[in-house]
Amino acid sequence: MYSEWASLSAQITANSCGAQCFSVLNKFPASAGREVVVSVVKQLGTNLGITQNAEPSHLVKDEEVKWCMDVICFGLSLPLQEHETIKDCVNVYCEWLTALHPQPRISVPKPICEDANLYARQIINHFHNLFVPRQGESADTIKRQAVLCHRVLRTLQQTAQISQLMDRQTWDTLLLFLLAINEILLAPPTVKDDVGDQLCERVLSVLFEVWLLACVRSFPSPSMWKTLQESCAMWRHRVALVDQWNRVNLALTARLLEFSYGPAFPQLKNADEDGQLIPIGMSNDCVAQTWYRFLRMIGNPTALCSPHIISKSSHFVQWALTHEKGAETHQHPCLQQLPQIFLNAMKGISSQVDAFLGLSKTSLIGLTGGGARNAISSSSTTNAGSTGTGSGEGSAPAPAPTTPTSTSGPPSASSSINSLPLTSMGAGVELAVARPKCNSILHVFHEWLFEAAHIGGDTWRQNRKKQACEASKRPSSMIMEHRKGSISLSQPNSLNDPQSLPPTLTIDKYESGRAEAIGTLCKIFCAKKTGEEILPVYLARFYMALQQCLKITESRECDETLASILLHSSDLFRLDLDGINVLLPGFIAALEIVLPDKDLKLKTQSMVFNRTELRRSAINILLSIMVLPLHYQTLPIRDLTCETSEKMFTFIQLKSRLMNILMNALQVETDAQNTHMLLGGLLLCVQDAVTFEETELGGGNANLSHNSSGVQHHDANLLSSACSERSASLVSAGTASLGGQTTATMGAGSGSIRDTGSAHDYPSLTISDDMSFEFGQELEGVTTYDNAHALFVRATYLVCHRLISSWKTDLNVSLAALELLSGLARLHIRETDALECKRAVKWICDYICYQCSRPPPAHSKDLHSTIVAAFQCTAAWLMQHPYLLQDKDCLQTVLEVVELGISGTKSQSKGTDIPKFKDEKELKPASMRVRDAAENLLTIILEQVGYFPSECGPESISSLLDELALMKHCNSMVPAAAASSEQAIAKFKYFVTENSTILALLEEPLGNDQDPQPTVTLLIRGPFGRHAWTMQLRHLPRSKSGIKYHAINPGRPIPMNDVTQRLDSEQKNFPDGVDKVQPCVADYSIPTTEQMREQYGTAVIRELESLLENQSIHEKLAWAEADTSADSLSHAQECVPPTVCHEFHAARLFLSHFGFLGFETRNPQNPAEALGNPTQRPLIVLDTKSAAFAADLDRLDKLSARTHDSVYVFYVKNGQTSAQQIIANMGEESSASHDPHFASMLQTLGWPVQVSEHSGWTGFVHNSWSLKGTPEEQLKSTANELNYNGSQRVLYWADVSSEIAFVVPTTWNLRYNSDTCDSGSISSTDQIGSSNVWTRGETDSAAGLAKSKSRNLSLELDTNRRDVKEPVPPTRRKGNVTKPTLLAQAPAKIFLVWLESYEDYLNFPLEDLLAYTRTGEELQTQQLPRASDCHVIFVHSLLSGLLRVKLQGPPGRMSFATPLVDGMVLSRRVVGNLVRQTALNISRRRRLDNDNYQPPHVRRRLKVQDIVQKYKMDLSEADLLAHLFQRAI
Prior knowledge:
The chain is mainly alpha-helical. The chain is built from 51 helices and 16 strands. A hairpin with a 3-residue loop joins β3 and β4. α10 packs parallel to α12 (about 240-260). The radius of gyration is 49 Å and the shape is elongated.
């Protein structure tokens, strides 16, 4: 930069030799000169005002002043024993220098005040004598010299700051003086505690600070800058030089960023005192010029790696010549600091790169601390407060490293990794939006960083000498050398002969600085924006550097360079970098070292970094390359170092290695967040493999070609034991043939699998690398191991085992594992093994049992959340695999767990125990949430498994019939009449049973039934939905009831007309032989008629006789009349059947047959059944005459029995930041320019439904879960296929327990929402009536009102009713209907955003878009959603066709759900499925985390109880029976 300018080094050398500091007193003996100095200086010192009042100087002529200055010049060179004299000389000169101040001191001679600059230049030159090191002085005298030097430096610096008189010549003199004293103090080799060592940091700081002042007052000439650069090159063996260089550079960089990028750019935070380094008034142009010159001041930092270059000065040569044993210049002990100095220099450059990227929080504040010499050796980002001056204000919020830096080793042992920024889950620290392009940063730093990254590598060893002079001219020279094949590992460096270097200066000691350099390069390239171009030469050099740094040694240890790359390359495969995939084999080899082993092998134990963060970064890289093998399949990956195809891989060959890394990492991972990420990646892999086989391979288990070039890679097989019995036998045989090797090894020889404690439960992951070629061929021919089924089996095994062994105590990991198992259950794999599925269900049930059996102190909200999630996971497995319930053992296991959840205990703890019946058990579930989840699972088992979806479709698990629909089919209804719901309800009788189920009974037969039977139609409204049943009382089965019993002509024979003669016979009261029986006394006990006449008289007897005679006459007349009538038996007549009965009172038959009319008998001896405590009746009658009954019934029907969620989908074009622009993208005119993959993704989220015909959740409360009749007129479909805004169509998906709507908002949504809010279409009175849907209301139980209890933790049961046979239900928290905002879940929103440009996520207008996402539930909860509560899933399409995911959401323990993970890269095959699962899991986690949330079936049950309280009729038993005989209207 200054090649055409002359250097002033000769002038500095002349000053050092004392040419301008020679005094006439040197001509005389030293004692004479000393006496003159003492006399003169003592007199001058008394007038300065130090010990007495200052007096005006008596020196009034120039000659007088010059003579005194000649004396003082000699006095400054006196031996240090004359400390007081030297001190007086310093005091005099410091006072005289105030002549340059605005107000000179009174003691300054007049000539000096008149020509201040001239005398000041002489005084400054004379000060040189003070700084000359004295030989053989003691440490105490050296300290005294240092104090005086500090005084002079302070005075000069103060004078430069406040003086307005200094001319350019004086400035040059001052700068040259400072360069000269630095030269004389710093150029010699470092000697501990000499004056140079003590003043090193101070003289450098004054030099740089005064130089900055000169840049404002009198900008130094190019010759001065060249001299500064040459001088600094001589001081590079001093640690303080790089420290001060970094300090000034960061201060200048901070100012440069301020005016270059504006106040919005992240501020570079330096130490407070460093903020004052830049003088006030320095213009922007001056800052830029000064910044670049200072940056280039010390030359190429990589020269620090060559002790020969650093030690080629004359001072080192002199030391080598005078060394008693003889030594080379590069063997001086002070050069052992070079690795540390190189590391500090690289850290300084890294800090500036961070500043340009906007990573101000990771700036090295310790670099700018003037007081701490070794500040850089400690962490400035992870160890907040460990540096000398910098506190933690700018450090990243991350845990501290696990171990401190070792201080006992050589300086090179300090690591750079501890200063690396710790990344959060996913993308890490956010970069500045307005950051410069990567090319711009590389233009400034590329030469140093690329060269530093190659230090110690093959390229560096071969081309070190040539690169020193050609790097700037031919930046691609090392690539050319690679291509020429001139790399040689054995050729030694021509400059640094390894044999001559001391052990502390070998090239491997510079690895910390190399790691810092390559990490900085990774940060630069990871800062690439969407669509940004990086020069190919930079990409090529970067890839070459990475390939060199990623080389794995035979010992398979993790060194600092490898760790630095992994820590800073999280985004490298997510950025569309051209040709980045050539590094894939190298990165996979690095991941095989870091992730699979529980104990990381470190190259040096002094490496300090957070191992958890290293693993997290490695996992991020793994998640970004996981889908590449199936995406590119047989595409070859070229090797950078050779043109031959011997080392050429195809992408599909790497899949097994990736799977091995993932499985083993998951097996040994202990950090919760890392495990969460790995679980998401595992489900991605299995899902992608399953979908790939279904789509790309036609659903068959096709054998993928693992090698297109004919080279057999037997280590590419995966999951050898998870496929068939034959494969297992082959593996065992192969193991035996290999000499009994039983330790399963990873692919590509990456080490043994850890966690062998459960080896008997786990199959080996891969086939041994030592397996013979023939055996490998045979094994691969048996079946495909690398397939979806094998992955499914292995994933299920691994996750279930770790869930119950290691993860059960961690909430987030347990939830993630259960979410993964639920996702695995939903996969449709052709070869699904029933035994594997049964085992998985058994594992989950065991997990529930273990969690429930934990001691009471462990029972917390988190524990119960995991149990509830496990019940939901069990339901998912049973729904997708209904055949499991056909297995007796599986059914018993599941039902035992359900019983455990509902009652708190099992009926049989062991198989041999006597079962305990339900009425003998005390109801103590773990919590109400657990009981609710168990009830839900039981209902799913009994009602839904094997029957979902029903005839109604998946959009409804309830019947689509209600009273109005049924009445339209009744005979009694007039077809033309438009019946209202009130009229229809009047035809029904309503009863409530178990205080939770409403029975609506219709006794009229439906019109489609031509066979009149006792028929009753039921509408059953319970906690789990509405169901319609029709029941008939038949005396014969339908198969035998085809012949009608009541024909019009029964076909009787014609009656006979022969009338038989009736014989008159006298009736006898006694047998004929009675007269022959001998009477006894008893026969006379009944008196005869004569005896009665005698006793009572004849009148009574006569009256009796007349009655008998009259009766006889009437009977004879009746017989005569019957004989003459047409109906008599003597006339022919036809038999006519009675009329058919069409009216039945079937309701009471149904209630009686089903046991609802079995009233309990009281036990008067039991106080619980005394008259004051009426028994709970099995049946409650509802009064349906109230006008509000129909509305309440409709509200109950509007409560879905499943959870419902909404996801709002947005499309953001490049650079859009306003809500209006984003919403306008879904207009008909804009949708044509969308990414075509966006429409494909929408179709995979759900299926389109017409809102007018849809009976499920639509995304809006007002038209969801309503029975849609046949639309009179279908609205014409819109021309825009993507119009899913909810006005006509919406995307919908549902399973047995949840439903979700995907809404693509347009301007219609804003208009609809405003209309809804203004008109109050959802009546507030309606909401008040249903407000306690969210709470537990008061129940009409026999024990009276329930007390308020906690839903989550302990359960106190009513002890007064323990003698009752029925179990007492535990009580719930009593609701407070006046505070609905505390009862409902906050209406959090889930957004799915497609980004054309990834960086647009930073400016996504979340707050403004909330107005387009109203559902109507906001009015129920009286709480509007907040942007801080929203979850956003950003999806960005890469040029490769893959999709990058960014998750954003509220901070919290349970915020982020799987399977999507921040930073994950997906294939288009699986994006819809994984986005939907993630949205559902996010919603489930929010419900689990909400104390007041109640499941849908609980809300329906509470609504039923609310209806009972409002409309029940208190009828006695007799009134109830009488009510059954009354007809409905």
